[in-house]
Design goal:
The protein is mainly α. The protein contains 17 helices and 6 strands. It has a two-stranded antiparallel sheet with strand order 1-2. Helix 8 links the parallel strand 3 and strand 4. Helix 6 runs antiparallel to helix 7 and helix 11 runs antiparallel to helix 12. The longest helix is centred in the N-terminal third of the chain and has 37 residues. The radius of gyration is 31 Å and the shape is elongated. The relative contact order is 0.10. Bound molecules: arginine. Arginine binds next to helix 6.
Length: 435
């Protein structure tokens, strides 16, 4: 049954009904919709807009519907237009006339705004928990590898020695920022829109404060036109999820590179790898590749919904229904990605000797900056020191040696400031790594 049959003289086209319908995806809002309706019904009774006994009957039946859907005894009928219609129809089917009073002083426009806000808040907190579980693993790994020396890169070229702890710590910083962004998104999504009606509020003497408190929002929305047409809170969550996926994709890429034979810094556990149907020797880091790949669709959801909202006039427009799938897809994508990425990290074996070897190998010259700093400490202007060490490195390349393999005499061909202590100064040891 539609909610708007009165003025219509023709039945809806089946195709248009299916096209219009959002229940296939918004059915996941059933809890949020019912919680919102319960608060609304209680408020209607308390304010004398409907009788206390009607309010009590509506609330009790809504609780029952909630239990029945959650328990699997009530199947959501997907022939309804959306989840809001389904719940209300079910209520009316169960308690008749009284159920029809629930929609007093309310529109689906403020109703869906409320359900979506509640959903975003709930999912925000779930993502936050997964992010924190990942942060715990990063914290542990950063401590374990505080002294594990490895090459640091710029332009993906060997640059200066760093520790694996520092490297992992860099990703920790990104995910910490994401936690803050989630908190901010939650704080921004803290206004209760019910009471805005379809667009112009309601003439009934409602108590929005009551509903606000009951549903644990910090304030009520101030402008009814804005409240029913605002989906910024969806965009904000989509943005934070995109940033999380961006950070995950970078770490994935790094681990995929490190897992190649060329790097050999890490082995991904077999549980998170797959083989090839033709090449028997292969173990591919598919889980990481998929996480990296899925970042694209999440960015697409964000930019797609941005484009949908662009230029929409006030107030509610059906275009806004398009946010649901973008939102659900991003939420459903980021959660397993966070969980699986944490598992991949937890079970990965880092080859610390190979990292050390790579940091100290002939040809890397990762201590060249140490040598330039050494000369600068001996009074040579850094620019000149840089030039001298550049020549020194060229010489070492020609002789296929590392800087530390040269004799003091060879060093002194380039500057008389080099003394025996240069060997300590350029050694690739933990104490020479500044951070
Ligand atoms: N399914 C709709 C949505 O998600 C609910 C609001 C419908 N409002 C309306 N005026 N048709 O946007």
């Amino acid at each position: 049954m539609n909610m708007w049959g009165g003025i219509f003289t023709e039945p809806p086209s089946a195709l248009a009904h299916a096209f219009n319908s959002s229940i296939a995806f918004d059915k996941r809002l059933y809890k949020h919709d019912i919680r919102g309706s319960i608060a609304h019904a209680e408020m209607l009774g308390k304010c004398g807009i409907i009788s206390q006994s009607d309010s009590g009957a509506i609330v009790a039946e809504l609780e029952q519907i909630l239990a029945d859907i959650s328990g699997g005894t009530l199947k959501i009928d997907e022939s309804c237009e959306d989840i809001h219609t389904f719940i209300e129809n079910e209520l009316v089917a169960r308690i008749g006339e009284v159920g029809k009073r629930l929609h007093t002083a309310r529109s689906r426009n403020d109703q869906v705004a409320l359900s979506l806000r509640m959903y975003c808040r709930e999912q925000n907190r779930e993502i936050w928990k997964l992010l924190n579980a990942l942060l715990d693993i990063l914290d542990e790994l950063a401590v374990v590898h505080a002294d594990t020396i490895m090459p640091g890169y710029t332009h993906l070229q060997k640059a200066q020695p760093v520790t694996l702890g520092l490297y992992i710590g860099a990703y920790r910083e990104m995910f910490l920022r994401d936690c803050v962004s989630l908190d901010n998104a939650c704080a921004d999504n803290n206004s209760m829109p019910l009471g805005s009606g379809a667009l112009a509020g309601t003439a009934f003497p409602i108590d929005r404060e009551y509903v606000r408190k009951k549903l644990e929002f910090r304030c009520v929305t101030r402008n009814s036109l804005d409240a029913v047409s605002d989906r910024d809170f969806v965009l904000e969550l989509l943005f934070v999820i995109s940033t999380i996926m961006l950070h995950l994709s970078r770490f994935c890429e790094e681990l995929i590179l490190w897992a190649t034979q060329e790097f050999g810094y890490v082995t991904i556990a077999e549980a998170y790898s797959t083989g090839s149907s033709i090449m028997p020797q292969k173990k591919n880091p598919d889980t990481l590749e998929l996480i990296r790949g899925k970042s694209g669709r999440v960015f697409g959801n964000l930019s797609g919904f941005f484009a949908t909202v662009k230029s929409l006039p006030l107030t509610y427009n059906k275009d806004m229904q398009e946010c649901h799938e973008a939102l659900y897809d991003s939420v459903d994508t980021v959660k397993p990605c966070l969980y699986l990425f944490a598992e991949v990290l937890k079970t990965a074996s880092f080859h610390t000797e190979r990292m050390h070897e790579s940091a100290t190998a002939v040809g890397g010259y990762m201590n060249a900056t140490y040598a330039a700093d050494y000369l600068a400490r001996k009074g040579i202007p850094f620019r000149d020191a840089h030039e001298i060490v550049g020549k020194l490195v060229n010489y070492s390349i020609t002789h296929n040696k590392r800087l530390e393999d040269m004799t003091l005499g060879e060093f002194q061909r380039f500057s008389d400031k080099f003394e025996a202590d240069v060997f300590d100064a350029i050694s690739i040891t933990r104490s020479n790594i500044c951070s």
